[in-house]
Design brief:
By secondary structure, the chain is an alpha+beta fold. It is built from 16 helices and 11 strands. It folds into 2 domains: 207 residues, 2-Layer Sandwich (Cytochrome Bc1 Complex, Chain A, domain 1); 194 residues, Metalloenzyme, LuxS/M16 peptidase-like (Cytochrome Bc1 Complex, Chain A, domain 1, 2-Layer Sandwich), CATH 3.30.830.10. The protein has a 6-stranded mixed beta sheet with strand order 1-2-6-3-5-4, sandwiched between helices. The protein has a 5-stranded mixed beta sheet with strand order 7-11-8-10-9, with helices on both faces. Helix 11 crosses helix 16.
């Protein structure tokens, strides 16, 4: 048994297995994590990881399409999935004595998903509709443009949904080959948390997964983003009445020594960020610097910011909704004034301590349920290669010093590291020109 009661083992075919007994309630959650996301995609196949995730709900010979929904609902459970830039994950939350259904279906669809041509054609319509719907969102469009400008080389430059041209031209074989390559035991982590017996649960996992053959080794994605030597800017002129300002700074990868220092800086500047997709904490950012500087002064109707935990360096982003009667330029100037203060080390000891406590509290809220623990354990194992990153999260956070935050802020919040985007609605005059 490992730290904090986690049983970790690796099956002969390379599948990593994490099991944690939590006996607070008769509930269990099973997660399947795959080390594949939009970072593994190439031009012509962007969006393939997300589309494959959709196809994983279309059935196998053992569990035809539509059967599993009814089976899981009948047992009082739920299931879902996420595709992100570095990973794809599937999970079930069930009464503990029924969780073997989740284990069985994940083993089955790791190997036996059908990718029926008619289902692929039907899902193409769904995927294209999802992309079209996103294009109706000014914020989504602005974010996509800023991503493309901030990253010139790294595949992080493309949204998880992929490019529309690729969604229209990708074939069934493109999807199936992606599935065959990445949905293999040696590229996956199985996580079980809940009211189970770890020894018995391991046997159940071994029975269903050990016969699945190991796949070929997955090559690493090595496309380091070159240094940025000056501020980049994008501007969208589209329909609407509301203007937005988005500032994105090149930040840190999850293994960077100052990742947690930037997390505390984030708590000061924009309010603590949750990197748990199962989060329901909904903490307020009303005490943050940006809220006071932009919303309380009525320059902006709202402001948010945050960081993303990723394998390679990603972006620290700040989004502001420009209030009627004000301009993008006014909001941008006020935003930069706050990041400049951070970069210059204008951070008090009291402010630092409060921000660190907020980040600690948010993490505690986000780690209570079995489903959240399933998320965190698999997330850490997938991105860092060690679930103990989750177990030692608070230790690393509380080890951050004020000097660490000042150093990280001075490094990240530089004009040369930022890309600024304006969304200027054609129905309004909020340009600031």
């Amino acid at each position: 048994m490992g730290t904090n009661g986690v049983l970790k083992t690796k099956l002969k075919n390379g599948l990593t297995v994490l099991i944690k007994e939590v006996h607070n309630a008769p509930v269990a959650t099973f997660w399947m994590w795959y080390r594949v996301g939009s970072r593994n995609e190439i031009p012509g196949l962007t969006g393939v990881s997300h589309w494959v995730e959709h196809m994983q709900f279309k059935g196998t010979p053992k569990y035809p399409s539509g059967v599993l929904d009814k089976m899981i609902s009948r047992e009082g459970g739920l299931w879902n999935a996420f595709t992100f830039i570095d990973w794809t994950t599937y999970y079930e939350v069930m009464p503990a004595n029924k969780i073997e259904l989740g284990i069985d279906l994940e083993a089955d669809r790791m190997l036996n998903s059908a990718f029926d041509p008619e289902e692929v054609a039907s899902e193409r319509t769904v995927i294209i509709s999802e992309r079209s719907g996103s294009e109706n969102s000014p914020v989504w469009l602005l974010y996509e443009e800023v991503l493309g400008a901030a990253f010139r080389v790294h595949p992080y430059r493309t949204e998880v949904l992929g490019e529309m041209i690729d969604l229209k031209t990708m074939t069934r074989d493109d999807l199936y080959h992606h599935y065959q390559r990445y949905y293999v035991p040696n590229n996956a982590t199985a996580v079980l948390v809940g009211d189970v017996d770890a020894g018995q649960a391991l046997k159940a996992i071994e029975e269903r997964f050990e016969s699945i053959p190991q796949g070929e080794d997955i090559p690493e994605v090595v496309r380091p983003e070159p240094p940025q030597y000056g501020e980049r800017r994008v501007r969208l002129n589209r329909e609407g009445q509301t203007a937005y300002v988005l500032a994105a700074y090149h930040g840190y990868e999850i293994k960077h020594p100052d990742f947690f220092a930037l997390a505390v800086a984030d708590s000061i500047l924009a309010g603590a960020t949750s990197i748990n997709l199962m989060s329901t904490s909904g903490t307020s950012n009303h005490t943050s610097r940006l809220y006071k500087a932009l919303v309380e002064t009525e320059l902006a109707a709202g402001v948010s910011g945050g960081m993303t935990a990723t394998i390679d360096p990603y972006l620290y982003t700040i989004l502001a909704t420009v209030r009627d009667g004000h301009t993008c330029q006014e909001v941008e100037d006020a935003l930069h004034a706050e990041t400049n203060r951070m970069a210059q080390g204008d951070i008090s000891k009291q402010e630092f301590e409060k921000a660190r406590k907020q980040a600690k509290a948010l993490f505690a809220y986000d780690s209570e349920s079995v489903s959240s623990q399933g998320f965190w354990l698999g997330f850490a194992e997938t991105l860092v290669g060690d679930y103990e990153w989750f177990d030692t999260f608070l230790d690393k956070l509380m080890a951050v010093t004020l000097d660490d935050v000042k150093r990280a802020s001075a490094d990240v919040f530089q004009p040369n590291r930022r890309t600024v985007g304006w969304y200027v609605p054609t129905g309004g005059s909020q340009e600031g020109e």
